[in-house]
Fold these 2 entries.
Entry 1:
Amino acid sequence: MKTRRLSAIIFTLIIILALPFQAALAQDADFACEFDPITAGLIQNLSQAQWVDWIEKLSGEEPVTIQGQEYTIETRYTAAMADDAENAQAFNFIYEQVREWLPEDQVSIQSFEYIDRFDEASGVQASRNLIVTFPGSIIPEEEVLLTAHLDSTAPLPLLAAPGADDNATGSAALLEAARVFRTAHFER
């Protein structure tokens, strides 16, 4: 329980520090440290239970449902997710979740290539990033980035790399931020 409480505190701090504060991000603005009802509302809508549920799903403790079919995420190894292995459906789970919340133009997939450091003989492989965008209403050219890596590794990464702390916690924090931010409007 102590770990969950510490995780909740860290999660809350990540969200608080990462929020695109209107005054703090402007280079020449005077920053006043005072109560902000918009930020307070966002924080009030965060759910530790939802965050923990996503960690459990992303680390294989609980099954996930993707397009009506149940899967258990046993690994989040990059190559296994890129190949859409049945035991590596984390990317598809997160993609489906954010598509339920957001319009198509706010969710995109970026393809990239990499060389597997554990299997360099396999050569260049393809993978993907999920990008969720909340467009700014006043200064859209200024961007605030919240990032996490979804992949994980372990001694037998194709079979079992559940990675609750590498990095299901960070990925779950971004899912929770996306859930809360979907109704928010930001300058940037």
Entry 2:
Amino acid sequence: GVSARPPATLKDAEVELVRRSGKVTDGIYSRFNRKLCRPAVRWLSHTSVTPKVTAFGGLAVAVLASLCFAQGSWLWNIAGAALFFLSGLFDEIDGMLARLRFQESAFGCWLETIVDYATYLLVFAGMTVGGYRRGGTVYLALGAALLFGSVLSFFAISVQRKLAAPAGRPNEYSQRYLAALERDVGNPISRAARQLQFLLKKGVLVHYVLLFAVLDLLPVLLFLGAFGAN
């Protein structure tokens, strides 16, 4: 709790509550993203905008990002990566706002997951079309493999979440997943998964998409994504 009494002010209390609206499983990337989101979250907390509205707002931004990637040029790729980064911030705002308002729910958790994967499919499809325009049919094969792996990952994680998390609390899946990997640290596969699992998060992916776009290395990202997803 935060005590809002002299000499503390209401403003100080609000700032502190927003600062603490992340999750215990946040890594360095998510913490950085959330710092960027704090002013918007504090402002939105005084409006009627709901977490679900921000989630769909991020999806709308991802549609624009996909259209940019589909153009295929370096400048358009950077624009698409910047919009994808913005979409990732919407994703952070969604969760922060839900926790601040005590509006976390099982439905909201599943909705966030569905929106995240819809975002991936849109952006990867845009990259595939853009790559095809620049380089040929090999991008179609990479894109198809990446899209297939992404859909397969969504179903696999959905089943895992349903089995591992308590009924009505799917948001606890990440903590239970990491705890299970820690207990199985003697297994080299679990140990490797524990070290690399942060790369699967949208809050991390948005940084690397922007980096690879600036370096004009999106084909490499498509290949790594297709390999990793499958």
